[in-house]
Amino acid sequence: MATLSTIMDTNSFRPEHREMLSDDISRLTDKREKVLGNSYRLFYRNPVHLVKGKGQYLWDASGKKYLDVYNNVASIGHCHPAVIEAVNQQMQQINTHTRYLHERILDYSESLLETVPSEINKAMYMCTGSEANDLAIRVAQAYTGGTGIIVTQEAYHGTSELTSGASPALGTGQALASTTRLVQAPDPYRVKTDNMAKWFANAIQEQIDDMERNGIKFAGFLADSIFSSDGVLPGERGFMQAAIETVHANGGVFIADEVQPGFGRTGDAFWGFARHDLVPDMVTLGKPMGNGIPVSGLLAKNDVLSAFSDHIPYFNTFGGNPVSMAAAQAVLQVIKDEKLQEHSQKVGAKLLNELKHLENQYEVVGDVRGAGLFIGFEFVTNKEDKTPDKSLALDSLEVLRDEGILTSVAGPHGNVLKLRPTLAFQEHDIDWLVSSLEKTIKTLR
């Protein structure tokens, strides 16, 4: 039997929950089951019917207000007026593809490339993060002549054939590629080591050596620098440097998946990889760059990308279209104008400090860690043996939902709350979140 997907099945509605539903929700779930494919999942045992969003808040069909502490796709806040205006204006002019000239894609690319190290100087665009990571893997293979890709044990990088084969978080029902190798995530709470940098670099070297023994040439290491699907593991700043040096020493490339940690979210830097003073060979971006508009990107060193692009034409019909570029331009400008990176650092630090009080106070809170507005809140049966408490985590999601807090779980055991609000999250929202969490813990204890 296939192992359940940690990102799809842990927090999800199931038919046995149907008896608890209201008539309206039951009607919608029945209709959904009738017309949509069975691969889809709904959040929560009692699904939420959302009809409106603004900033960090959402409203359901009954008018109930929620605090969104999960949705990084609407990165600068739901229905941000700057994005709405930019998309509306461009839609009234033209929307076409990149085989015609247009200023939007060029102007945005210049602005975006200014935010990354100067060695990274080329951009390409797609519609989804999956497509961006798919292309990055293809480029890595062309540049190195290898096929072997290393990811962490609970990584998620997409749903295409290539990316699902490097996304163990999808569960064993989705087979990994024979050329994929896994390393344990660098989790300071659970990994016993005095030198995480060395430990992680050695773990990567072991998998490269295993590839060589099996006749697989190493192509690259694909990771998001906060290891979000592995349970949100920011680590000490700079600890990843030894690992990436190992990747390069073995002829591979480093692909920084910035779909989740990018665009100022971690506070310390504009990009997640920049927290560790890294210069990736490629950077992949997803829908947060357009605040939910289907747009994604690949940024790369010219010599790395050329190994692919000098030989293989690439065309993504509406990747980089003027409307998507207008949304992306608006997002980038808002992040700068509203100083959202600095905001994420300041408000995230205050939120983390308040959550740490719960860690110190309650036996079932094993570890709280994060960077900026990206925090992992881990439930355990007790602090001494650190046994993951998945049931408590999943039950807490339902109580939090009733309290108007929307979030979900991550990590290999499904016991880590993934607190990842939009960057519109404010200091005055902290009390709602923290008090609801404390009430939840008291209720479930």
TrEMBL record:
Q: What domain of life is recorded for the organism? A: Bacteria
Recorded protein name is 4-aminobutyrate aminotransferase
Q: Which family does it belong to?
A: Belongs to the class-III pyridoxal-phosphate-dependent aminotransferase family.
Q: Which cofactor does it need?
A: pyridoxal 5'-phosphate
InterPro entries noted in UniProt? Aminotrans_3 (IPR005814), Aminotrans_3_PPA_site (IPR049704), PyrdxlP-dep_Trfase (IPR015424), PyrdxlP-dep_Trfase_major (IPR015421), PyrdxlP-dep_Trfase_small (IPR015422)
Keywords, alphabetical: Aminotransferase, Pyridoxal phosphate, Transferase
Tell whether DNA-binding is among the UniProt keywords.
no
GO molecular-function annotation terms? pyridoxal phosphate binding; transaminase activity
Work out whether the entry's keyword set contains Metal-binding: no
